[in-house]
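Worked example 3 (structure in, sequence out).
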């Protein structure tokens, strides 16, 4: 489990956050499998100078979103971010176990998401992860990716790929 707050030993660090941003940029406009376990510690988050803490936000419509800055801002108003609409993910047919304990600020779950880029030249890129609608193709994508990511070793991954990813056999 990662903690997203500075001064917490398990913080992923700028290199990991940059890798996340690189992967999101490469997959913009595509479906991805997300398996996430994030936590924030309020005392550490509240001491941060960034305006993005805490990460869990409730909109006017009562729906929860999780907004994660992908690196510390270079300027006060410009920062790349990743947004996961938690309420939508929890209701999606192709996501499993999205939790948003407001008192503990834990986000945990997996699912298929579409990477949507909302780019603003003034505030920076916002990668919005939209839960995938159910279809035969996205259901197979979820099964295939979950099987491969959960398998340990080359043989297990290969067998999982053959059983769950190859169609028509």
């Amino acid at each position: 489990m990662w903690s997203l707050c500075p001064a917490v030993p398990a913080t992923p660090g700028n290199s990991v956050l940059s890798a996340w941003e690189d992967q999101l940029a490469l997959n913009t406009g595509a479906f991805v499998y997300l398996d996430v376990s994030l936590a924030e510690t309020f005392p550490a988050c509240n001491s941060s100078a960034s305006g993005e803490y805490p990460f869990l936000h409730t909109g006017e419509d009562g729906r929860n979103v999780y907004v994660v800055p992908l690196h510390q801002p270079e300027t006060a108003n410009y920062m790349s971010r990743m947004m996961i609409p938690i309420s939508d993910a929890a209701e999606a047919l192709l996501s499993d176990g999205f939790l948003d304990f407001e008192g503990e600020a834990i986000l945990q779950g997996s699912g298929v998401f579409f990477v949507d880029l909302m780019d603003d030249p003034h505030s920076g890129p916002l990668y919005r992860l939209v839960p995938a609608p159910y279809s035969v193709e996205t259901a197979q994508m979820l099964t295939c990716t979950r099987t491969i990511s959960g398998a340990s070793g080359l043989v297990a991954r290969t067998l999982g790929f053959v059983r769950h990813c190859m169609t028509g056999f």
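Notes: The radius of gyration is 17 Å. Residues 48-53 have pLDDT under 50 and may be disordered.
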